[in-house]
User: Which sequence fits this backbone?
């Protein structure tokens, strides 16, 4: 490692003038944002640092109040389980966050807290960065929870040829389908079992695959060579679904790229740059 | 700069497992703790980072409440103007902090907040580190505010031959003298004008010398070659008093050593080390 390329997760030297950011979550040890954002801040020449803050659900409002009160504390990344509750604590919710029903970032603007959601934007940018387009393609999204909602709304904006949703809670998938149809009636949307047959892209937005003996989240017999299979799970970095998909000749994309795709977009949202410091 | 010796103020790479510390002050841009503590954490191999938090006086309790609530937020350094108010927000005040009437550090112990004060200990350690002893020496301390109180109590514990106090607010100096006499009746203590004649050590604990046209805080005609003259002011790094004292053949010590002397003691108080991470 040369001195011009410090390890991932190292900010510029901290001083009294450093601007502060934090990620709030419970648990916190597994989050990748401190590693990714501190590297991004350093690349941008920003005298800023992002720290992890382990916040139990009952304490979220207390920590957001301190964020509001501290004058050099400029931005929050919000992760599990706080994304929905955090929406009630901001002064303004950006359109995409309102569609998703959750915020995953908060910044200050003239003392007001602005919440937005870049989970889906990060997903799309992570695919674009690897040369994968979503527009005009038939896409299966499995899971209609927080992550699935964010991904589905962002994919919808890319004008897919068709969108299929599945969730074990069928009512939840149907509610999401109805919301999506209200945003863009021009995309064919259905709720069906998680069979990728005839689709070009399949995305796992559930947590199925994190535990060793989990079943597959999609019907893998429907996978065909050339399909793009995406998993948003971060641990394991390569899930059993992706291993099986590769075995069947699919193109695969692990969860880390969704997060990486999000970092630059969020740094822009935070107005992170050397001119601000 | 080699990769094994990063710049001052650089912590180990941040991750979700990083333990968090902060310095609370208003203003905040001038504080040296982020530079000093992040270097100390790295030297100790601790996955920890200290960030500056700019907290207006009215918001101190909100930020301390968030500190209490966040499970990986382990310690606070408290600076101007919060040291006295912070004492009311902790669950337990250590003996030296109680004597001084102010806390400058807070740590958690089984969920309780413990406040202590290392300003005076840092002063003494900063002198010891440079080979200067306080015990058995006649010492003049100018200024009986927060810093003067901390220095006087710590110097008293070193058993000086005599202690002279001065403050423009004479009642404040007399009150401090009475408190010190209660702690140790064996040291001769008086309140008199700031004339170092006949003393071996003179310490400026006022802010006089920070502004370009300030007068000297002590009667410099009383300075003699060989006396030790200490200033606790950080900016300018070398005050007009120290320049004049050197011109008169005195030994001098600038304010930074008080802060450096404090860092290791506070890291011990915080239980900072690789085993905790």
Assistant:
């Amino acid at each position: 490692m040369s001195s011009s390329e410090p390890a991932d997760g190292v900010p510029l030297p901290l001083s009294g003038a450093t601007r502060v950011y934090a990620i709030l979550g419970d648990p916190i040890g597994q989050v990748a944002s401190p590693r990714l954002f501190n590297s991004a801040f350093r690349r941008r020449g920003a005298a800023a640092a992002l720290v992890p803050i382990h916040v139990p659900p009952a304490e979220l409002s207390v920590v957001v109040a301190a964020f509001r009160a501290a004058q050099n504390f400029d931005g929050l990344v919000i992760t599990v389980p706080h994304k929905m509750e955090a929406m009630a604590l901001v002064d303004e919710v950006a359109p995409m966050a309102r569609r998703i029903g959750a915020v995953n970032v908060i910044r200050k603007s003239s003392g007001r807290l602005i919440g937005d959601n870049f989970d889906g934007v990060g997903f799309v940018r992570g695919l674009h960065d690897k040369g994968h387009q979503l527009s005009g393609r038939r896409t299966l999204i499995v899971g209609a929870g927080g992550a699935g909602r964010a991904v589905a709304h962002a994919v919808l904006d890319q004008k897919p040829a068709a969108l299929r949703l599945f969730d074990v809670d069928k009512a939840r998938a149907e509610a999401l389908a109805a919301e999506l149809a209200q945003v863009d009636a021009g995309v064919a949307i259905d709720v069906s079992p998680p069979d990728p047959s005839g689709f070009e892209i399949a995305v796992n937005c559930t947590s199925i695959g994190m535990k060793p003996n989990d079943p597959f989240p999609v019907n893998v017999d429907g996978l065909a060579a050339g399909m793009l299979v995406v998993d948003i799970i971060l641990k394991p970095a390569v899930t059993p679904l992706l291993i099986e998909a590769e075995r069947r000749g699919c193109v695969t994309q692990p969860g880390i790229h969704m997060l990486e795709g999000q970092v630059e977009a969020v740094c822009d949202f935070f107005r992170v740059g050397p001119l601000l410091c």
Notes: The longest helix of chain A spans residues 256-270. Chain A has a mean pLDDT of 95. Residues 19-117 of chain A form a domain with the Rossmann fold fold (CATH 3.40.50.10860). Chain A touches chain B through 47 residues (CB under 8 Å).
